[in-house]
Amino acid sequence: MSKPEETKRVYAMSDAAALELEKTIRGCFVQDQADFIAFDGRFSAPFETDWLNEITAAEEEAKDNNVVTQQSGLTIEVTRLMEESKKVFQSSKYHIEKAFPASTAVLNEFGYRDYDKARQAQNKMIQFMNQFHKTAVKYSAQLIAKGFTQTKIDEIGSIKTALDAANQKQEAFKKDRGVLTQERVGKLNTAWQRMQDVCNAAKYVYPENYAKLARYIISESKGTPPPAPDVPPVQ
Length: 235
Prior knowledge:
Elements: H1 15-39, H2 47-60, H3 64-99, H4 104-109, H5 115-118, H6 122-138, H7 140-145, H8 150-205, H9 210-213
């Protein structure tokens, strides 16, 4: 099975510049639509409306920088919960060690041996917090007898659940980002290709009217005058 190809922009300018050009040329087309229809009936309504809808759809699609902002927000939340996980473990150690002062095996059940590695990676911290909470529940009577509280045990559970959920949301968004970008590029390309169709037809609609034809010349380099059009010969 062949690998699917990434959808790439069919133009070299920025998205904003492309959309601005499409709206400008569409405005010219609306003024000249009767000439285009006389050349080819497929330019009849709703051609101009469909084109506007395609431009609008491309503009309304989530922008890449907005996607980055959303992902950044998810990362911030995961980072916050990582810190909360570290704090709740460190603040629990006093009572854990009071309850089990001479039991290395039990301390390791609470994650003492695994903490240094877990604190460096969110997937490891999720597993650490699951085990930490499970062990706190298992030894809740001994902990509470030494001044720990059920509220604290519940807090460990809440943080581990929140961290797991935030991590899942972040990872899912990373996968979805590529889909969002592909969809947006597809919509941008659709609007651009319709404009190209009009501009190509303009060579035949206005073969001897350079002033009119110049309205439909696409120049992708700002500040560079458009080249003389390749006008088809008059038959």
